[in-house]
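Tokens as discussed.
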């Protein structure tokens, strides 16, 4: 078998066999297939698509590129959640400690930023000392002893996804349904959990911009899960405006800490986290219905147990928990300045994609694989769609590492909002649940 033939076959829109997909993934994982050929293949998949059968073969090949954890005897009922990627999406940092504080075991494998969307691993690396590349043994031992663990791909777990993910991030091959489905589901299979909640984002700040596309992706992933005997549900959630107010790594970690300490007022973030927690609690059999799940989640937040659980997780993985108790310890970007509203009116659009792209330009994400991240930079969005604003009041606060970056970001953000003269409705948070 020859990798060039496989690239050409996909370029010409033909269906790859299981053997061809395995040959490609195994060769890429072992570094026998170089990045440039993998990038060409990913672009061919992006443009030509894959059948559900090919996507399942790809998922399994990526999952089996490393070890598949068995949670038998460790945490048979452990749950996992995963987002398809959005702007300002810090829900994992809130939902994981909430449900862990409610007694669920949570085994979470997360990713880095991808394109204009942020990633949990990049966000958590804002915390000094934290280790997020756990070995299989560490992952299992922490889960068994403490019921909560969060890791990125390591050499052991789904290494093919780790490599392909980094390449897709910088080659314009992120928004592909088979590549997203296989990336997420391979990690979920490798991490061994049987109960998985997927958060499929829909809107201009998501990789699936329309509800029919997002529904198709959700159904594809739920079907892959079912084929391999996992219980998977997918919620469809809005990503037409950033989730919460903060976009950028340290800014988002601080917003998550504030929400866990009862100090955040972001209504969409609170609603989203309560709903995801309630669904997970029901899936795991801890809550009889949505109302009971929400009540448990609220209690975990109000009592401070969820916040303590995040501290436990961070401390177990060598992160400095003093930053959670005193978020003012986090370093600030050197240039922090507000952008005022240009006119009076109601905000009918706060374009999540433009804000995500601006945040990447500020240095919160990568343009090349080797790009370092500046954890300090990002954007605070002071309003939600549907809010009334007055000319001159703060619309955004930009956190930049230079005057030049600030000016570029200010220019880009000027076009992110649409005003109208009549009141307009708020955006819904959840559009439905699949599975
Ligand atoms: N999350 C992932 O893990 N992979 C993707 O491709 C998109 C979101």
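Sequence:
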């Amino acid at each position: 078998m020859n990798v060039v033939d496989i690239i050409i076959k996909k370029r010409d829109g033909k269906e790859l066999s299981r053997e061809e997909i395995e040959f490609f993934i195994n060769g890429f994982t072992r570094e026998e297939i170089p990045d440039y050929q993998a990038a060409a293949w990913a672009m061919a998949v992006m443009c030509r698509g894959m059948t559900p059968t090919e996507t399942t073969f790809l998922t399994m090949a990526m999952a089996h590129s490393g070890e598949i954890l068995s949670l038998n005897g460790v945490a048979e009922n452990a749950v996992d959640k995963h987002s398809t990627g959005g702007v300002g999406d810090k829900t994992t940092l809130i939902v994981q400690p909430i449900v862990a504080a409610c007694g669920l075991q949570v085994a979470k494998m997360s990713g880095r930023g991808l394109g204009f969307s942020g990633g949990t691993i990049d966000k958590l690396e804002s915390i000094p000392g934290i280790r997020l590349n756990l070995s299989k043994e560490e992952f299992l031992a922490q889960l068994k002893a403490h019921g909560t663990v969060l890791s990125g791909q390591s050499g052991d777990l789904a290494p093919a996804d780790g490599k392909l993910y980094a390449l897709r991030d910088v080659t314009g091959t992120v928004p592909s349904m088979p590549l997203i489905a296989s990336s997420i589901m391979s990690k979920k299979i490798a991490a061994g959990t049987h109960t998985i909640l997927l958060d499929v984002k829909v809107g201009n700040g998501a990789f699936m911009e329309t509800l029919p596309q997002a529904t198709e992706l959700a159904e594809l992933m739920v079907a892959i899960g079912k084929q391999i005997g996992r219980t998977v549900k997918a919620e469809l959630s809005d990503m037409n405006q950033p989730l919460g107010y903060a976009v950028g790594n340290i800014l988002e970690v601080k917003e998550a800490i504030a929400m866990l300490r009862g100090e955040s007022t972001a209504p969409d973030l609170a609603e989203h986290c309560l709903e995801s927690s309630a669904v997970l609690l029901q899936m795991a059999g801890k809550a009889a219905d949505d109302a009971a799940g929400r009540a448990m989640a609220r209690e975990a937040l109000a009592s401070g147990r969820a916040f303590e659980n995040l501290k436990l997780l961070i401390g177990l993985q060598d992160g400095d928990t003093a930053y959670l108790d005193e978020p003012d310890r986090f370093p600030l970007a050197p240039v922090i300045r507000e952008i005022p509203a240009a006119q009076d009116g109601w905000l009918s659009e706060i374009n999540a994609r433009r804000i995500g792209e601006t945040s990447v330009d500020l240095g919160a994400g990568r343009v090349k694989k080797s790009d370092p991240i500046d954890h300090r930079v990002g954007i605070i969005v002071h309003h939600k769609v549907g809010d009334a604003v007055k000319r001159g009041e703060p619309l955004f606060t930009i956190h930049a590492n230079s005057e030049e970056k600030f000016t570029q970001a200010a220019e880009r953000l000027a076009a992110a909002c649409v005003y109208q003269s009549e009141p307009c409705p708020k955006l819904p948070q959840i559009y439905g649940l699949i599975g």
